[in-house]
Design brief:
It comes from Nocardia ignorata. The protein is mainly alpha-helical and about 130 residues long. It has a two-stranded antiparallel sheet with strand order 1-2.
């Protein structure tokens, strides 16, 4: 599908290929899977009780300090992953709106998109209600 118009005396156009368009959402899902894995690890790190670094020995100040830093860093990573998750969710929503509009205006493009999406698979663990 090609969208274009005369603007400022030149031709501007955007070519939207269904196969590439379908790949965008799949890439978002793959990124969200990584974000989920990192979030789980960060949660495990921040909640780990014993590190074996002498954190329970009152004579060693470095153990509790190090463990505290690990936990703070893990919590910061968890917060960053939540931000990534939210940004990708917003992007996917905009992508879905664009998809719906493109499908509504071009039947042939819609069929090619459906084929491309089927070829990529439709498993989406991050869809609303999937959890």
């Amino acid at each position: 599908m090609r969208f274009g118009d005369e603007w400022g005396g030149g031709d501007s156009a955007v070519v939207v290929r269904p196969e590439e368009f379908a790949g965008i959402d799949r890439a978002c899902v793959m990124f969200l899977e990584v974000v989920e894995s990192v979030s789980l690890l960060a949660g495990q790190i921040s909640s780990q009780m014993h590190w074996g670094l002498g954190e329970g020995d009152g004579r060693l100040i470095s153990g509790p300090t190090l463990v505290g830093r690990f936990r703070e860093t893990a919590e910061a990573v968890g917060a960053a992953m939540e931000t990534h998750r939210r940004i990708v969710g917003d992007f996917r929503e905009a992508h879905r709106l664009a998809r719906d509009r493109l499908v509504a205006v071009d039947e042939e493009w819609a069929l090619r998109l459906a084929d491309a999406e089927a070829a990529l698979g439709t498993r989406d663990p991050f869809a609303v209600g999937a959890r």
